[in-house]
Amino acid sequence: MRFSSIICAVCAAVPGLRIRLGSLEPRIVTEEFVRALAAYPNLCPQFHLSMQSGSDTVLARMKRKYTAEEYLASLNRLRETFPGCAVTTDMIVGFPGETEAEFEESLDFIQKCAFAEMHIFPYSRR
User: Fold this and answer.
1) Are 105 and 50 in contact (CB under 8 A)?
2) What pairs with residue 86 in β-bridges?
């Protein structure tokens, strides 16, 4: 069963319940995904789309399975399907090996994305 099918089933089963999605991976936000969710008015138009970095080289070192452009495409899909939606994100700074230039790439990317809110964390090994 697809993730969107589960969300749609919950939205349909409990129409009076507002559903908010958090910590979405950019690869999940496909055309099919947003089209399926658009049918449910009880889906809260606020999405947390995890970013981590706006630099492709840092994303690769993090072993993320998306690029900044792929992230931006997912973000644009959400905004086109849910006009006026709020999109929030996470960012990690100081990832091992991150250069000043890569940090600047992330800053430029953040400005391009115009997030409603961000959660910014310093890198830690956990």
Assistant:
1) no
2) 46
Q: What is the pLDDT along the chain (126 residues), one digit of tens a residue?
A: 688 899 999 999 999 999 998 899 999 999 999 999 999 999 999 999 999 999 999 999 999 999 999 999 999 999 999 999 999 999 999 999 999 999 999 999 999 999 999 999 999 987
- Please check whether residue 12 lies inside any domain of the structure: no
Strands 86-93 and 43-49: parallel
To which residue do tokens 């091992």 refer? 96
pTM for the model stands at: 0.91
Residue 90 phi, psi dihedral angles, 5° rounding: -115, 145
**What CATH code is carried by the domain that includes residue 62?**
3.80.30.20
Helix (H) or strand (E) holding 48: strand 43-49
Place of tokens 């939606």: 85
Give the total number of structural domains in the chain: 1
